[in-house]
Design a protein that fits this description.
alpha/beta; Rossmann fold; five-stranded parallel β-sheet; 5 strands; about 40% helix; binds 4'-phosphopantetheine
């Protein structure tokens, strides 16, 4: 079975992330979405919420590919998590050229740490390529409408939040 890990903060997941998950599930038999638990950051959504939101969004929008997707939390190195779940690929999305430099650095570093794990990039769909989780939180914090930017599961949970990043 070909397994890929899609690591990220997902605070919160956007339609751009969901597009990458969906396309990765079309290529890999098993996609493990890996939600980073970073003790140095204070996320808007707790790990358990991010897991629940992603699972809900995947079930709602991936139809027959949803069974290929698992969602887990991790801490430490992405390559260690990839090895733990038996993944030979790391998936990342590229929205624009501006993402390339840091993603290239991360891919080379991960390959140095784990030569058997390759990074595969999906170009985020054009209609979602302007999106970022931080932008979503900023818009929501001013009461703006983010329903075209994030899955419904996020919209529901964003409303009524007092602290948004
Ligand atoms: O959604 P993000 O914040 O762009 O995701 C970044 C992430 C989680 C992929 C990156 O920070 C990461 O891999 N963190 C785990 C620690 C690690 O492996 N660091 C070395 C990466 S070169």
């Amino acid at each position: 079975m070909t397994t890929a890990v899609y690591p990220g903060s997902f605070d919160p997941i956007t339609l751009g992330h969901l597009d990458v998950i969906s396309r990765a599930a079309g290529v890999f038999e098993r996609v493990v979405v890996a939600v980073l638990v970073n003790p140095r950051k204070s996320p808007v959504f707790r790990e358990s919420e991010r897991l629940g939101i992603i699972r809900e969004a995947v079930a709602e929008s991936l139809d027959e590919l949803a069974h290929r997707v698992e969602v887990e939390t991790f801490d430490g190195l992405t390559v260690d998590f990839a090895r733990r779940v038996g993944a030979r690929f790391i998936v990342r999305g590229l929205r624009a050229v501006s993402d390339f430099e840091s993603e290239l650095q991360m891919a080379h570093t991960n390959r140095k740490l784990a030569p058997e794990v390759d990074t595969v990039f999906f170009m985020t769909a054009l209609e979602h390529s302007y999106l970022s989780s931080s932008l979503v939180k900023e818009i929501a914090s001013f009461g703006g409408d983010v329903s075209l930017m994030v899955p419904a599961a996020v919209v529901t949970r964003l409303s009524g939040r007092s602290r948004l990043g």
